[in-house]
Amino acid sequence: MIQRTLNEIERMVQGTGLLEKYQELKIHGVSMDSRTLHSDCLFIPIVRDKDGHRYIDEAVSRGAAACLWQQDHPDPPEHFPVIYVENTLDALHRLAGAYRRQLKVRTIGITGSNGKTTTKDWVASLLASTYKVQSTEGSMNNHFGVPLTLLQLEEDTEIAVLEMGMSGLGEIEQLSCLGRPEVAVITLIGESHLAELGSREAIVQAKLEICNGMESDGALIFNGDDPLLVNAIEQKSLPSTIRTIRFGAGHHNDYYPLSIALESQGTQFNCHPRPDISYWLALSGKHYVTNALAALAVADYFGIPAEQTERGLREAVLSGMRMEVQSSSKGFAWINDSFNASPTSVKAAIAFLHELDGYQRKIVVLGDMLDLGEKEVEYHRHIGELLDAQKLDYVFTLGPLSLEIVRIASLTFPAGRVQAYENKEELAKAIGLLVAPGDVVFIKGSRGMKMEEVISMVSG
Questions:
Q1: Smallest Cα–Cα separation from 454: which of 430, 425, 433, 434?
Q2: For 447-455, what is the mean pLDDT?
Q3: Which of 56, 59, 73, 353 lies at a 20 to 30 A Cα distance from 294?
């Protein structure tokens, strides 16, 4: 993590007002959260839903060594090291950018509508066999998380793997300019953020902003199965020194699967250009193979020996709530995929569930898909069309948008097999009464739906 004197910090954030007696005091790390900060760190109060300046007393009591302070806020702490800045969020970004420029670390930026976090986890695991690697924790991928991740880097870290998310135009560019990736990965262009951006074409342009902060000599690794993305990259004026590498299901890509075998606990596959290696993923679904191919392309770029890539994928520690298989004390299984949902990811999950064997009954629990814009009803109806009554036993939904799933699926499922609920308590009660030993319950919904709470209600 960053360790600098306050005199250096003041210069890095372009701040003022630090008293001379504090200039040689050294901070160890940075925090925006007074509840979790550790001693000797720099507290940066951010103005958002809750104004961080209100928590300075708690930060001081927990051992913060110093703080930044936005100039338009009154009552800075007395008898405490303070650096004044015009805007604390801008100062956070300046500090992260300055620290990044001081490091010799090589960085990888990963963005896309789906699959960012899983791909990030696999990339980090593959590279860790050869390099000292640090990566984004969980999904700290926004304008707070990326600078904080950079500031957590150790000075001897060789590769940083940065997940980059966004909610509108310009955000990915800002994060890319902070991280300065040598390698950029675009996993998939889906329907997330249609409410903000209006079209998939606009989403493509937003994701391509990751190229704007790239080093001049590196690689852009992208999903070659998406014609919108492929065309946009072909039209973008990338430096000739940046390699383009494609991955996907089609054989026109540089990395593509040769065979895929789905199992309840994971997925086995072979791929080009390494047909002799059998890879194992601790996640079930063909769509996860695509993300793994992107990670393998990154591993090849950084020269990871082929024999180490199999172990890197197999032993990767993955972030939670992504196709997590959990055994219930009542003898049935949960497949918890509740971290997030979009039409693309739900479609892939349904395809996986249709092929899944080894359980008495398959029960699907779907929450609303959010942020889909004016076509949100159409997208939910399409999910209802995809559900196959010959391959699934029950469908439960939660939320007003998912009523459209129920309306369509009820046309093909037997009476009573498709049920809609307005609150989690009623949904959990219905699942608890229905489920039996040998069943599997798959659960998924947008992050705002917090579908994992249903699991706790049923299990608790």
A1: 425
A2: 94
A3: 353
Give the residue, 307 or 248, on which the prediction is more confident: 248
- Main-chain dihedrals φ then ψ at residue 107, nearest 5 degrees: -120, 150
The pLDDT, as a whole number, for residue 193 is 65
For the chain, the distance separating the N- and C-terminal CA atoms, rounded to the nearest angstrom, is 39
Following DSSP, what letter does each residue of 92-103 receive, concatenated?
Answer: HHHHHHHHHHH-
Angle between helices 171-179 and 200-208 in degrees, nearest 10: 20
For residue 5, is it left (φ>0), alpha (ψ between -120 and 50) or beta?
beta
Residues in the chain: 460
Q: Could you report the per-residue pLDDT of 181-206, keeping only the tens digit for each? A: 999 999 988 777 667 777 888 888 99
At 359-388, the pLDDT tens digits run 999 999 999 999 898 889 999 999 999 999
**E strands along 112-166, which residues?**
133-135, 159-163
Residue 160 burial class via C-beta count within 10 angstroms: exposed 0-12, middle 13-18, buried 19 and up: buried
DSSP classification of residue 255: B
Q: Are 309 and 293 in contact (CB under 8 A)?
A: no
Residue 402: what residue type? S
- pLDDT tens sequence across 132-153: 999 998 778 899 999 999 999 9
415-451: burial string, b at 16+ Cβ within 10 Å, e else: eebbbbbeebeebbebbeebbeeebbbbbbbbbebeb
> Cβ of 291: how many Cβ atoms within 10 Å?
29
Give whole-number Cα distances, 18 to 54, 83, 246, in Å.
20, 5, 50
Concatenated DSSP letters of 383-440: HHHH--TTT-SEEEEESSTTHHHHHHHTTTSPTTSEEEESSHHHHHHHHHHH--TT-E
Write down all domains in the chain, each with its CATH number in brackets.
Answer: 3-87 (3.40.1390.10), 103-245+284-314 (3.40.1190.10), 324-459 (3.90.190.20)
**Among the residues of 128-209, which ranges form H helices?**
145-151, 171-179, 194-197, 200-208
